[in-house]
Every structure is written in C-alpha cells, then in structure tokens.
Design goal:
By secondary structure, the chain is an alpha+beta fold. The protein has 2 domains: 2-82, 3-Layer(aba) Sandwich (Glutaredoxin); 91-186, Glutathione S-transferase Yfyf (Class Pi), Chain A, domain 2 (Up-down Bundle), CATH 1.20.1050. 48% of the residues lie in helices and 9% in strands. The protein has helices at residues 12-22, 66-76, 91-113, 128-141, 152-166, 174-184, 187-194, and strands at residues 2-6, 26-30, 55-58, 61-64. It has a 4-stranded mixed β-sheet with strand order 2-1-3-4, covered by helices on one side. A hairpin with a 2-residue loop joins strand 3 (55-58) and strand 4. Helix 5 packs across helix 6 (174-184). The structure holds glutathione. Glutathione (GSH) is lined by residues 10-11, 33-34, 50-54, 65-66, 102.
Length: 195
C-alpha cells in the first residue's frame, strides 16, 4: 500500500492529484511541518529528512522530493499512462519539464517573492521574467507540457502555476488562464481538492 505523508494546501496536494489520476490505492498520513509563519514543527512520523511534505512510502521504499515521487509513481504504476516510459520519444522532454519545476521554476518565483538579487551564471535557475516567457511561449503553442499528451509534468508545473496565478505571483496571461482552466477541469483534480 502506498502511504503519502501529507498536509492539506501544501506541495503534497500535487501528489494526491497524481495518485487520483493513476487510480491506485493509497492512504494519506497527515503530518505537521514547519510553516513560513514560524508555527508548526517537524513530525517524527514523517520520513522526509527535513520533515517536509510530500514524502511517500511504498512497499518498503521511501521517496522524498515531489519530482522524484512523481517520476517514481509514473514509472511504476502504468495502468493509466501519466508519463512517457524510458525509450518513448517524449521521455527526454518529460524529464526536462519534471526537473524544471524544482530546479528552475520554483527558485525563480521564490527569488521574486523574497526579493533576491539574480546572478546570471552563478544561480542554477533563470530570472523570473525569463522563466515566465519560456512557460507562456510553450503553453501558447501546446495544449499540455508534452504537446497533446497530459502527464505528471502538467500536475507538477501546471498545479504550481495555477496557485501562483491565484496568489498573484505571476501575471494572469491568456495562455496561462486557458491552460490552467483545462488542467483543473479534470475529474482527478476535483477529487483531490475534495480530499
Ligand atoms: N523541494 C520540496 C519542497 C517541499 C516543501 O518545502 N514543502 C513545504 C510545504 S509546501 C514544507 O514541508 N515545508 C516545511 C519546511 O520547510 O520545513 C519538494 O518539492 O517536495
């Protein structure tokens, strides 16, 4: 049985959405975590080395970091295809976008939120406006991150973009509005939100 270490309205919500898309049995264990306002504490039941959410346990294996969890699940559970397998022509593109979320998109938006000075050539991500251009350009030409194929990359990046627009952390462009409406209309997204 899959156990997701979870807390509502956090990044672990993306994994609930993914599990709902995959239609696999799972349980959630609600854990506490350190919040931005200084409240909360690491839950000793959470296997994440920093006490963050999400973390996941499955058949004796522990996985932490959202991107790693997404890749682990979409490779292992393939009754519903949520990501191209090794050898598939879109595998490289899939991995690129999955890693883009924690490696580039998130740091870029946090940089703006916390007013951090960008240093090209030193930081591993790109300036916020440049990231916004890449995302908007891609999504104005493609239905999903992988073209016509919805995948876990849309949950990881698209889910993040949806909340960033909601909290005014990125401008509400036509491309982003249309794309996020498309992905949040999915029944699995609605089920995840209800949970
Ligand atoms: N890079 C991690 C980030 C996870 C993360 O920071 N989650 C927040 C909740 S949204 C958290 O648990 N924060 C607690 C802390 O930083 O100690 C991932 O993508 O899984």
């Amino acid at each position: 049985m899959i156990t997701l270490y979870h807390s509502p309205q956090t990044r672990s919500g993306s994994i609930v959405w993914l599990l709902e898309e995959l239609q696999v049995p799972y349980e959630t264990k609600q854990v506490t975590f350190r919040k931005a306002d200084g409240t909360g504490e690491v839950d000793p039941a959470n296997p994440h080395p920093h006490g963050k959410v999400p973390a996941l346990a499955d058949d004796g294996e522990t996985v932490f970091e959202s991107g790693a969890i997404a890749l682990f699940l979409t490779d292992k559970y393939r009754n519903v295809k949520m990501g191209p397998a090794p050898g598939d022509a879109k595998r490289g593109e899939y991995l690129s976008w999955l890693f883009y979320r924690p490696g580039v998109m998130e740091p870029a938006f946090m940089e703006r939120r916390f007013n951090i000075q960008h240093v090209n050539g030193a930081m591993g991500w790109a300036k916020t406006e440049e990231v916004e251009d890449v995302l908007n350009n891609h999504l104005s030409k493609n239905k999903y991150f992988l073209g016509d194929e919805f995948s876990a990359a849309d949950i990881m990046l698209g889910g993040g973009l949806y909340y960033m627009m909601l909290f005014k952390m990125t401008p509400e462009t036509g491309a982003l509005k249309e794309y996020t409406s498309r992905i949040t209309a999915r029944p699995a997204f609605k089920r995840a939100m209800e949970k």
